[in-house]
Structure to design on (307 residues):
């Protein structure tokens, strides 16, 4: 009788599971409460963090990485003898030529002349583009008279107007400044006018309900709504002023970087031409960076992908 009692008594150790369901031990060994008695500790998988969709933090001086890489490749190819020195001089040769032109040549005078021409033309084009965009964007009469005329002017190649402007204004500084102004005002007008036309009409209705005056409406709604497009046009206008200047200073000019490059072409001085191109490139990069910096300061209230 005692033997029968002993054999019917269930065991309470995990190794003998006769008469005891397996589910509790399975839950203990596989569940998150802890490992099975005597078994290895389970590896807990951490939840994967979602991959960020934004570009990430802005790197300092990131825009200089591309030009510096080009400069390094240029120097490496020149040092390895892969480039013909007569066609593409080495960077140190160009720097030596630039130093010689600055100390003993006319490079300082040419740089100042080019800067003055670009500044005058850019100021006139910027003022004209903004005023025309406001007139066309805020009034139907202005849009009817201005928008079609500007788009017709845009369809005509600006550099093709050079012969006509020479006949009208002569070969002095006036026609050069006028051509640069035309090159600048077109992108400024187009982008500013597009931004004005894209302002949500609900803001206009809100201004009417609030009883804003015309000046308050322009200051509080029109200007903030048009600033993003204006800065896009401003960047294009800055670049266009330098592109136009390169061509204009090689036509009936007696000074300037373009004139210096044109004279170097006649004498086969490739290093001097590269000096002029590098100076134009530095001017363009610096001016574009300044405009971008101002844009970030003025439009700091926006939360965009780049910010």
């Amino acid at each position: 009788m005692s033997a029968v009692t002993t054999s019917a008594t269930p065991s309470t150790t995990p190794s003998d599971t006769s008469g005891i369901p397996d589910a509790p031990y399975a839950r203990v060994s596989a569940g998150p409460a802890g490992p099975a008695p005597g078994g290895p500790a389970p590896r807990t998988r951490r939840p994967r963090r979602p991959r960020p969709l934004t570009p990430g933090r802005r790197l300092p001086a990131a825009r200089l990485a591309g030009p510096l890489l080009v400069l390094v490749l240029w120097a490496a190819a020149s040092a390895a003898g892969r480039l013909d020195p007569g066609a593409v001089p080495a960077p140190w040769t160009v720097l030596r030529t630039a130093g010689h032109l600055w100390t003993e040549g006319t490079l300082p005078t040419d740089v100042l002349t080019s800067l003055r021409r670009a500044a005058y033309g850019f100021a006139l084009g910027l003022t004209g583009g903004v005023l025309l965009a406001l007139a066309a964007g805020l009034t139907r009469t202005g849009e009817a008279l201005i928008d079609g005329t500007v788009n017709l002017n845009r369809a005509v190649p600006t550099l093709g107007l050079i012969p006509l402007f020479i006949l009208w204004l002569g070969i002095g500084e006036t026609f050069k400044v006028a051509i640069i102004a035309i090159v600048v005002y077109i992108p400024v007008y187009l982008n500013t006018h597009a931004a004005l036309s894209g302002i949500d009409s609900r803001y206009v209705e809100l201004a009417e309900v609030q009883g804003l005056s015309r000046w308050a409406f322009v200051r509080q709604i029109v200007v903030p709504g048009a600033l993003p497009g204006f800065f896009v046009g401003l960047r294009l206008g800055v670049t266009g002023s330098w592109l136009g200047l390169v061509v204009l200073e090689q036509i009936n000019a007696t000074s300037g970087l373009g004139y210096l490059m044109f004279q170097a072409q006649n004498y086969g001085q490739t290093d001097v031409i590269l000096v002029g191109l590098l100076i134009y490139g530095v001017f363009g990069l610096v001016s574009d960076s300044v405009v971008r910096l101002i844009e970030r300061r003025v439009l700091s209230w926006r939360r965009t992908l780049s910010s």
In short: Confidence is low (pLDDT under 50) at residues 1-31. The longest helix spans residues 214-248. The radius of gyration is 35 Å. DSSP finds twelve helices and no strands in the chain.
